[in-house]
Batch of 2 targets.
Target 1
Amino acid sequence: MAPSGSRSDDCWRVLYWIPVLFISLIVAWSYYAYVVQLCIESIENMGEKIVYLLVYHVLFIMFVWSYWQTIFTKPMNPLKEFHLSHPDKELLEREDRRESQQEILRRIAKDLPIYTRTMSGAVRYCDRCLLLKPDRCHHCSACDMCILKMDHHCPWVNNCVGFANYKFFMLFLAYSLLYCLYVTATDLQYFIKFWTNGLPDTQAKFHIMFLFFAASTFSVSLAFLFAYHCWLVCKNRSTLEAFRAPAFQHGPDKNGFSLGTNNNFRQVFGEEKKYWLLPVFSSLGDGCSFPTCLVNRDPEQPSLPPGHNPSIKSAGESHQFPPKPLRESQSRLLNNGQSEGNEDRDKRGTSNPALTIEKET
Ligand SMILES: [Zn+2]
Ligand SMILES: [Zn+2]
């Protein structure tokens, strides 16, 4: 028998789809208004009609494809090594004192590529998913799971935006903005005709008018949202991190994951340019560990500048993290990013004490 409450949970989950349905209905209506009422019914010039329809359909397909991907890409689960083993779970349950629990968690975290802490300096642990949270991972109460590189939970896609679908979300914003701008621009002259009585008195004129209002209004709000997320990508911050800087062992550092604009962009969109504009997954890394200029995690990478000596960085720490080889793409990002990222840091000053020490000596 299903546990009590599961049916009401399911009902609530159905309600979560209402914003997606709302957007889908608007998009479906805009398709009808543009294709049928504007292009087929109102535009008389055949050449203009074909060009309008062709460009429109390219944008429409890219927009719907990226929206679909943002909605239906399931968040990835943190790797198995971040989940507590059965003996560790039992050990943790037996301990009542918070300090002892933290001691156990610190011991487990020692073998993992985890560099961030809670604001109070504790190991980040999710007691619902029973795992040590990878860097940039947060528990989403709406999805009831830990989301890798969580950006935010978006009701308009009824999904969490995070490592698995952030590129799709960016493309969704970009293509929906282009779609709205294109509809606004091509509808403009017919919208003017509406007010100058240049359109025949059919129902098409009302579709043309509302299409212009809807597309121009959405253009403005999408432009702000897209610009904000472009800024976040360039800075390598999630929305959550923009509001609260991730805390490292030396303290909070809002630029902790930044590797310079170029590498930050590549971390989300990948190395291969041919995939940048397509809503197919091409982000770098596994979502559980992220290269950072603050620590050297790969002993095989000798190119760290002296200011990045981890022994300086972890002065005062009770333990050091073991070096863990990064994936090739991550190592490349880290290497490439160091010169660019450091220049960036030097220009604006830095909150990294390791770099501050370096400057003073
Ligand atoms: Zn969780
Ligand atoms: Zn969520």
Note: The radius of gyration is 25 Å.
Target 2
Amino acid sequence: MTPPVKTASLNPLSLKDRMKVPRQQMPEQLPQVRATNFTEVNLGYSAELARQEALRCLECAKPACTNTCPVGVKVREFIQLIVAGDFLGAAAKIREDNVLPAITGRVCPQEDHCEGGCLVGKKVQSLGIGYLERFVADYEQQHLDFRTIPKSQPTGKKVAIVGSGPSGLTAAGDLVQKGHQVRVFEALHEIGGVLVYGIPEFRLPKQIIREQVDYMRAMGVEFETDVVVGRTVTIDELLEEEGYDAVFIGTGAGAPQFMGIPGEHLNGVYSANEFLTRINLMHAYEFPRYDEPIVDLAGKHVAVIGGGNTALDGIRSALRLGAAKAYVLYRRSEAEMPARAEEIKHARQEGIDFRVLTAPVEFLSDGGGWLKAARCVRMELGEPDSSGRRRPVPIPGSEFDLPLSVAIIAIGTRANPVVQSTTPGLGTNKQGYITADPTTQRTSRKGVFAGGDIVTGSATVILAMGAGRRAAKSLHEYLKTGVW
Ligand SMILES: Cc1cc2nc3c(=O)[nH]c(=O)nc-3n(C[C@H](O)[C@H](O)[C@H](O)COP(=O)(O)OP(=O)(O)OC[C@H]3O[C@@H](n4cnc5c(N)ncnc54)[C@H](O)[C@@H]3O)c2cc1C
């Protein structure tokens, strides 16, 4: 155990007493109510709850919470500021390392990072670091005068950021603070990447993303939407004709992946990307007010295939659109599910039916081109595979048919090739992802950096942000020294 700091603490509780304070519950909408609406599930801490929770921090001398955070948020320091009642100070402390605190406070898999490392969690429930981060970020949004955000001394250097997901936004935020002129180019009509087109309103309201983007605008970041780099303009044109000194590519892994089983072409079978993009970005859930229909789900049986955050977002959206039965079909067991622990808990509370160790092998037609059922096989877990997880193995003769009107495929995504195929000399691996040095995020092309899902494959918001940070650091070095 790391010995906690004993001095300079405003926390009135002894270390022993801090361990006795229970973790403060996040107020949330009741499951039966929220299963019928798209408003946020978690309602956020009050100032009182936040102070109570912050009192549980042991103020470790070597804080594992910070060391396990991919962007290195100074957790102990911001929590001490909450204890002191200085919420704006706490927000400023987080912002030293994290330009999107209202977002990470909501969707980061804290159990794998800060809260997973928290010493309190070794004995009782870990400190609610994500909930506290969310609280100060929301407080800042309500109370900070954006005109007071300081601008840095201009360096005269121009940087283009391709893609406005968390990696691009983080790189942009860090670079503008160094005084560089930063412009973000985004293919879609809204800024935010997966944060806007993938994650639904009930987990991450669009307004929160817009506010974080407004903050970045106030810092001096420029944004341009509806620009497909590789089509509208190429990386070479940005560097050679448009006067950019360096480029960061954060284009994500947004191309859908299918299962390759019979019947996947049937009406009613969607990729999770399409299903969620239509709902989130095109407001399909507000049809006919918005002219973007998806299949009417009222009273229908719907299943998602997969066990990650995307799968749960898809099926919980289907439930909110009126599905009578909403299944998760996952080929491994719940222990291997990659989704955030809180999302699994919330989905269960809402009545999602988890069918683990189950995989579709065929989609069956009603004879008129529409999905009627999924033929599934039961699985058991065998030896670990290359991912280290136990391989699912089909049980012979265990096939059964599950009646379904809609199936959503959420088994992962692939790299979109547009930038790679139009940038000569840009190194990629055999799956088409951009190769970049894991420390500097430098690619094979001088002046071109890359990070986030387009380098690693689908990962998480905070890992993409970590890559954006590393890229910003080494890009700044490059602009200062010209050394590649
Ligand atoms: C539905 C869903 C739910 C998720 N939930 C969570 C969660 O709860 N917690 C978590 O940590 N992670 C979650 N993830 C994963 C996480 O969102 C991603 O790992 C993260 O967004 C990757 O960030 P990125 O910056 O690399 O790319 P993205 O967020 O994918 O952003 C890339 C952006 O680049 C744009 N772009 C692509 N090509 C071009 C081009 N040629 N020109 C211009 N712009 C371009 C895209 O339109 C997009 O806006 C989820 C993912 C999905 C799909």
Note: The first strand starts at residue 158 and ends at 162.
